[in-house]
Amino acid sequence: MAEKGAEGAAEASLTAAEKQLRGRRQELDYWKQNAARLRRRNRLTGLAIGAFVVGMFSYTILSVKQERILDELDDEAKIHIIRGPRTGTNS
Which PANTHER family does the protein's record reference (predicted)? Predict the structure, then answer.
């Protein structure tokens, strides 16, 4: 209890600039203590976003290639339709 009263008296005697400086120091200490955890989270987030981008790019390239193959198959089908069915009478 006596310690709380002493702290309160010390708080009251601080000027606004000293309070601001003390707050900044506390904030700097907080960031120093948690920097490693934040870096780890940032790396994981970056890797997740990177994996998503690479996956989306790969999927897009693959689907474009499939469209080209389908276009070629459609062209072949059109040729066969134009030629007509192959039967013994018209081959």
Answer: CYTOCHROME C OXIDASE ASSEMBLY FACTOR 3 HOMOLOG, MITOCHONDRIAL, CYTOCHROME C OXIDASE ASSEMBLY FACTOR 3, MITOCHONDRIAL
